[in-house]
Design a protein that fits this description.
188 residues
Length: 188
């Protein structure tokens, strides 16, 4: 697993051997950032990200490498947090990220109270926990945190997280290999 582009291009990232954590593949991350760079979010520099179920941090670190101003990494697994720290520390970007050691759904309220206004919210719950998609997307759909943000949910290709969650409505689904990217925005 490596960083695809930007300031830290080709840098290898640590992973968790034998753990149930499944980092977003290099190919899927490249697709994600190509889609974002070609759409209404053509400028990724200076954006704010929330990386829920961050795991190794591959998506948030990719965003930082491409010029994101701030990434909020949310992870509750101690093993994943240890690897995430090992991946972040050598980058020398401590002022550009914040770690929240807590549950993804609970973190939405914490980030709201902190008046965080993200441009992108990425979530990648374990595929074996379909309820985590429903709980997290529903919380985001009823939250000020997602106001103005593009919410992206990675899922297994055979799993459909759903079309709407509160004020969030899916605007696009992109299948690639065994995975899918589901894009949501707040409806008017």
């Amino acid at each position: 697993m490596r960083i695809i582009a930007g300031k830290f291009r080709s840098r290898r990232l640590h992973s968790i051997a034998g753990a149930p954590i499944r980092p977003t593949s290099d190919r899927l991350r490249e697709t994600l950032f190509n889609v974002l760079a070609s759409g209404d979010a053509a400028r990724l520099e200076e954006t704010v990200w929330v990386d829920l179920f961050a795991g190794t941090g591959s998506v948030g670190i990719e965003a930082l490498s491409r010029g994101a101003a701030m990434v909020y990494f949310v992870e509750r697994s101690k093993a994943a947090l240890d690897v995430l720290r090992r991946n972040l520390e050598p980058l020398g970007l401590a002022a550009h990220y914040h770690l929240l050691e807590r549950d993804a759904v609970d973190s939405v309220s914490v980030l709201e109270r902190g008046e965080v206004r993200p441009d992108f919210i990425f979530l990648d719950p374990p595929y074996a926990l379909p309820r985590a998609y429903h709980e997290t997307l529903t919380r985001l759909g009823n939250s000020r945190l997602a106001q103005g943000a593009l919410v992206i949910a990675e899922s297994g290709r055979k799993f459909d997280p759903g079309e709407t969650f509160g004020t969030l409505a899916r605007i696009r689904r992109l299948d690639q290999g065994d995975a899918a990217l589901n894009f949501y925005r707040r409806s008017a």
